[in-house]
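re: that complex we talked abt at group meeting.

here r the seqs, copy pasted straight from the sheet so there may be weird spacing, ignore it
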Amino acid sequence: MAKLLVVDDEEHIRLLYSEELKEVGYEVITAESGYKLLELIEEEKPDLVILDIKMVDYNGLDLLQDIRNRFYDLPVILSTAYDTFKEDMKSIAADFYVVKSFDLTELKKKIAMALETRLPT
Amino acid sequence: MAFYEENPQAVTKADIVVGIPTLNEVKTIAATVEQCARGLKEYFGSMNCVIVNCDNQSVDGTKDAFFAAPCDIPRIYVSTQAGETGKGNNLRNLFEVVRKLEAQAVVMLEADVTNLAPNWIKKLAEPVLKGIGYVTPLYVRHKYEATLSSSVIYPLTRCLYGRRVRQPNAGDCAFKGSLVEAFLACPVWTDAVKSSGIDIWMTTVALNSRVPVSQCFMGIPKIHRVKDPYAHLGSIFRQIMSTTFDLMKLYADFWRMVKWSKPTALAGTDAEDVETPIPVDINMNRLYDRFVQGFESYYPVWEKMFDQTVCHKLSEIKDMGLQHFSIPTQTWAQILFDASLNYHQAAESRRADLLDSLLPLYLGKVLTFVKKTERMSVQQAEDYVESECTVFEECKPHLIKIWE
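got the structure back, here u go
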C-alpha cells in the first residue's frame, strides 16, 4: 500500500483527499503547512507528496525545490486552485499538477501514473 | 587523443574546467574567455580553475586570440589534427584533458555566444559542485526556436529514457569530472557524434549513466552569431537523428524498462529578471512545399518503412492542403518509432536515404506545430509540447512491441 503525504493549509482539502484516497487503498498522512516538511518526509518516507502551492506561510513551489534537492526522485504532485503557477519555472520540477476539485478522478489518475513511473536505477 | 597541446602554465590539476570548443572563432574567443574568467574568479575564486580551448587547428588565429585574451586564469590549448573537424572531436580532447586534470566539475560553453555573462559559469557549475552529475541549461526560447528539439529530440529522449530534459542538445552543459569515463567508454562514436550529434550524445550517455540530472534556468535567450537555420539543416538533422537511433540500440535494455517520465531537479530559479525570447519568423508556405516535395520524392521509401495506416494518413494529410494541414502527434510518434527500427534493420548504405526521407516529415511536423500554436503564448505552446510528450509516452508500448 503506497503512502501519500498531503500538504495543504485548508482543512477541508486535507479531509477530502484523506478520505477519498484512503477509500481507494492508499495510506494517507497530512501536514497543514510546510513547517519542517523535509524532516517529516525523512521520518515518514512517503511514496508520493501532494503539495498545495499557495499556503498562508509557505510557497509550495519553494518547498518543491527543497524536496527535489534532497529527495531527487520522490514523486510530487502540485495541487492548485489556479493554473497561472505554470508561469513560474519552478513548477517544472513537479511530476504532475492538478487543479483542485471535489472530483478527484484526475488526481487519482496522476497518483497512479506517478507511482507507476519506472526508471531503472 | 589531442594531436597538439599547449599548456604554458604547466597545469596538472584543476577543480573546475571550462571547455570552449572552436573552429575559426578568432572574432569571439577573446570575449568568451574574458567572461568565463570573470565568472570563475568571482564565484569560484578559491578553487583551482582552468580554461581549455579545444580547437580544430583553426587557421584564423583562434589560438593566439585565446592566449591573448585578458584573463588571469590558467589556460590550456588542445587541438585535433589539421582537417579533423567537428565539435565531437573537440570535446573528446576535452574529456581527455579533464581526466588528466582530475577535475571535479566541467562547464562546456560554445564560443560564439554573444550574450555570455560571468554568472553563466556559476549557474552551470554550482549544481555539479553540489552533487548533480549533469546539467543542461534552460534558455528562454521563442516557441518557434529549436523546433528539432521541441518536435523530435525532447519527446523522443523523454519517452525513451524517462527524464524530462527540455533542451537536451542546447550546445552548452556542465557535468561532474568523473562522467568523462562514461563518455570515453561509450562504444557509439560515429562520424555523426564527432560532429553535430555530440550534444544529444552527451545528454543520452549521462541519462544512461544514472547520474542525477538537473536543468538550470538561465533566464535569458542564448544569442549566437547569426546563422541561416536552413543552411545546414539536412546534415544536422541526419547527424542528430542517426546519433539518437544509434544510441537507442545501445541502450535498448534500459529504455525498455522505462515507463512514463520524471522531472529533473531545477537550478537557477533565483533568476533576477527574465528576458523575453527573441521572435522567430517561420514561413509556413516553405514548410508545406518541402513536405509536398518530400512526399513526391520519398513516398516509396515511406511505404517500405511505415505500415499502411501511416502511409494512408500521410496521403490524406498531403491532400488536405496547407489550410487544414496537420500531422497528428500519435502518427508522428509512430513515424519516429517505426523509423528507428527500420534504421537498425537497414543496410549501412541505405541509412542516409532513410534519414533524409524523415526530413520532410519533420518539416511537416513543424508546420503542424506552428499552425496549432499560432495564437498561443510561449507558455501555452510549451504546454502543448508537454501534451505531445505525454502522447509519445502513451504510444511507447508500440515501440517496445516492434523492437521485440
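couple things i noticed - Chain B touches chain A at residues 130, 138, 162-164, 166, 210, 212, 215, 217, 254, 257-266, 269, 271, 379, 383 (CB under 8 Å). Chain B has two domains: 4-267, 284-403.
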